[in-house]
């Protein structure tokens, strides 16, 4: 539109359908011999004498593991304290719109507006500190729609069919946390936003680091002790 001063383009840009990505991830875990348990809420992680960890579940269940990776999103902080981590996380609400399904109309992607493979136009990009309230708001939905039409006037005739809010997992400085517990070998903490964007690194360098196959000094720069140091300063 005439109010847009300019744009950037990269032929390497792409996007993924999160529902299909989740299905593929579950299939890959199962194919590699992993087991996914749903409804198994961990309320305590306890180091075991001689190595390993006991995981206490709501309802009285128990699991034992030789290695533990805490990646429970906004629920990570409580469990992390039990293993000596110092991380803090907070929710940040984002809101999204999706339009009715249409034929191809947006041949390019942007960071906040894209046409998904089913045909709808997905519009987002908001950030709000609203605690754990994940409800969408009329004002923000209206602002999103106006912004989308300003950037892509060809969207003006479309109907919005769904809107929702969701909570991002944010650290105090907005960067990920990759940490290992100094007093409990085999315990790791992984907390981040932009998990899809970071997935290639998580599947390679991060996985090798957790398995002890390789050192990763660049990852260790994201240790959660940086928050304790900033508090002391």
UniProtKB/TrEMBL annotation:
Pfam annotation, one family: DAO
InterPro entries assigned: FAD-dep_OxRdtase, FAD/NAD-bd_sf
Domain of life the protein comes from: Bacteria
One MF term in the entry's GO annotations: oxidoreductase activity
Keyword field contains Oxidoreductase: yes
Keywords, in A-Z order: Oxidoreductase
Any single GO CC term annotated in Swiss-Prot or TrEMBL for this entry: cytoplasm
Residue intervals of the FAD dependent oxidoreductase domain: 3-209
Keyword Transcription regulation set for record: no
Protein name in the entry: FAD-binding oxidoreductase
Organism field: Limimaricola litoreus
């Amino acid at each position: 539109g005439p109010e847009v001063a300019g744009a950037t383009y990269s032929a390497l840009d792409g996007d993924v359908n999160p529902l299909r990505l989740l299905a593929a991830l579950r299939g890959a875990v199962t194919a590699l011999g992993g087991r996914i348990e749903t409804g198994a809420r961990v309320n305590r992680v306890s180091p075991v004498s001689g190595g390993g960890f006991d995981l206490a579940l709501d309802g009285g269940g128990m699991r034992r593991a030789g290695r533990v990776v805490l990646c429970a999103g906004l629920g990570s902080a409580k469990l992390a304290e039990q293993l000596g981590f110092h991380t803090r996380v907070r929710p940040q609400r984002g809101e999204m719109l999706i339009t009715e399904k249409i034929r191809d109309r947006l041949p390019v992607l942007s960071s906040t507006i894209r046409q998904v493979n089913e045909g709808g136009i997905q519009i987002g990009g908001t950030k709000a500190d609203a605690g754990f309230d994940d409800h969408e708001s009329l004002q923000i939905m209206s602002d999103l729609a106006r912004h989308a039409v300003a950037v892509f006037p060809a969207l003006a005739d479309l109907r919005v069919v769904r809107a929702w809010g969701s909570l991002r997992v944010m650290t105090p400085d907005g960067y990920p946390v990759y940490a290992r517990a100094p007093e409990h070998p085999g315990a790791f903490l992984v907390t981040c936003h932009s998990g899809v964007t970071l997935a290639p690194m998580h599947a390679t360098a991060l996985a090798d680091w957790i398995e002890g196959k390789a050192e990763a000094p660049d990852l260790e720069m994201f240790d959660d002790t940086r928050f304790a140091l900033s508090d002391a300063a």
